[in-house]
Write a structure and sequence with these properties.
- This protein is α/β, with parallel strands linked by helices.
- The chain has a domain of about 180 residues: 3-Layer(aba) Sandwich (Rossmann fold), CATH 3.40.50.150.
- About 40% of the residues lie in helices and about 25% in strands.
- It is built from 13 helices and seven strands.
- It has a seven-stranded mixed beta sheet, sandwiched between helices.
- Helix 6 links the parallel strand 4 and strand 5.
Length: about 260
Amino acid sequence: MTTESAPEGFSKAAEGYDAAVRYNIDGSERLVMSLPPGDYRRVLDVGCGTGFSSAAMLRRFDVSELVGVDPAEGMLDVFTAKLDGFDGVRVELLAEDVMGMSAEPESFDAVISAMALHWFPDKPAAVVSMARPLRPGGVMGILTAGRGGEESWRDLLFRMDAPPEWSGWFEQNQRDVDEIARDLTAAGLEPIDIWMERRRRATPPDDFMARTRAVAAHLLGNPPGGQSDLDRRIHAALHEASGPEGFVYDYCKLFAVARKPG
């Protein structure tokens, strides 16, 4: 199977992304509401996707300038289509990777990153890169996949002998509270609040597959207008594993808020 890069996959899934990830949108709202009160005029949204986290920042704070970076140009196209809702705010959207951001050091009052860190290959280095544009006294908020969740999903992938980039994804990319605390401290930040949410979900298998196609399109290898053999196998396995409630699984979301000293 040939896989795409993550930006290519997210660009492919961009049009239907928001409809498939309502839990991510809800989580972004909780992340923004957890930031301490402050004067966050200039905001950097790393892995901004379709813009729902940026919109949450504008609803809570008096933001005057927002920069969103994401390597998936298709996601930025969807964000651009929403800019009428960002009236009065200077918005700049850049197709940039977290490790190659052009943001000036110590130039932002807040840096946020929602449901993106788990896709960054080098997570400690990514946190360092995100901390660099934060001014002294500024705040960072991160939402990412938490360690320990999705056991039934992981077990399903093992049983169907999915490729290692699927079955091994959890150990490689999930983060725990102690791990993210170390990442933040190593980046020169002071953790303010770190916590995990673990939720039980029961989802119709077709809806779960729609979510999978939205967040992991780059791993499915689907041809234009169709499904790969792997896509069909996963879809069938989800139906086989589902009961009257649907596909039952748990999910852990990891939240972290930190401040740059100064």
